[in-house]
Amino acid sequence: MRLLTNCLALLTWARVPKPGVLLMGVTVLSTVAEALPYSPALQNKYDIKSAVSRATTISALEETFLQAPAEESTRENVENWITLGLFLFIIACSLIFEMAFDSTEEFLTYRGVTSLLKMLRGAYKELTILGFISLTSFATVRLGQMQRLNDTYLGVSKTEAAALREATEAGETLSPPTHLTEVFEEIHVLIFIIMFLFILAAAVFTLVGYRLLRKYEYFDAKTETDLRNDVTMLQTSADVSEQHVNESLIYWGLRQRFIYPSIPLVPRPRERETGYPQFSFSDYISYCFGETLTGMVELPPSILIISFFIVLLLRPALDLSGREIIVFMILMAFALLGMTALAMMYTRYINEKLQPHSAKLREFFGEKRASSDQMRQAIAAPIDDR
């Protein structure tokens, strides 16, 4: 009797999710116990323990019958609210993104910044492509293609076999976790991170580009008289920023070097003709800046083909062990950082070679009358010393 009661108590303590089976077990065990021969000694010896075990069994069965439907209902309710919340969150994010994109597009169209508008549309197109790539990887995993490919070439792991057995017993059709499924999920997350960084970079480029173009338009509107007044004010009262004056003078010097190049073979802007607007150096810079950003955002097919071959060349790195591949990734990150630093240093070096000296320009505009030779000397750049 003690053994049968303890077995029932163990089944009840294990919370078998079938209360009807537990009740049937109580009935069967009670019938068997009544059929056993009666022994007063054993009855007196285990009377207290039997009563405690019987009481524990009854209380556990009551808790099972009462709590199981409540727990199932609570879980279903929470799951429904989570599903609804996720749908609302995705819809809200989509609306915010569409409103932000439309507002930015209307603002750039109203301001006439066509170069940045082209870059923004290129970024939107690239985001659409990344979204389709992410959708394709998600559908490949959910439709079971990765599971069949994994079972064919990598075999069925113990985890996958256990998941399949539990899903079959529960009557579910969920795809079990496989190695290739985890790899595709990691790729899916990586694509999401790339999309986020892509949006952030496009937003930063748009903001910085708009501020630069507005500043160049302001510099382009300054006449030589305005520059002379700024230099005079800087020398007398210092009410104007020296950096602002230097930037205005350097911009004027670059514009003069572009419109009137010292080398005859260098192409120059055409003379103003009737019916055509006057040449604007700021608009030309805006166009070049927009084309550069568009090329950075909207990668040409040649860059994608080169990236394809680079990925193939990095295939042996996947055979490295855990620590070795971490060291390899760190070295690659520092290599990319070094290449970026070298590119920035080279850009600054070229910029310094092409820019006129601000001190010579201040000296030129500080004089009341200056000849053409003095202007040629003022706009001279270090690259002319070759």
What does this structure look like?
Helix content is 78%, strand content 0%. The chain is mainly alpha-helical and 386 residues long. Among the domains are: 1-105, no CATH class; 214-270 and 278-385, no CATH class. Helix 1 (2-13) packs antiparallel against helix 2, helix 1 (2-13) packs parallel to helix 4 and helix 6 (145-153) crosses helix 8. The termini are far apart. Residues 1-47 have low confidence and may be disordered.
Helix content: over 70%
pLDDT averaged residue by residue: 74
Radius of gyration: 38 Å
| Structural class estimated from helices and strands | mainly alpha
Largest sheet: none
What is the number of beta strands? 0
Question: What is shown here, in short?
Answer:
With 386 residues, the chain is mainly alpha-helical.
Features of the shown structure:
15 helices, mainly alpha, disordered N terminus, 386 residues
Task: Give the topology, please.
Elements lengths: L1 H12 L5 H17 L4 H6 L1 H65 L2 H29 L2 H9 L4 H13 L8 H42 L3 H13 L5 H18 L21 H17 L3 H13 L8 H33 L3 H9 L5 H7 L8
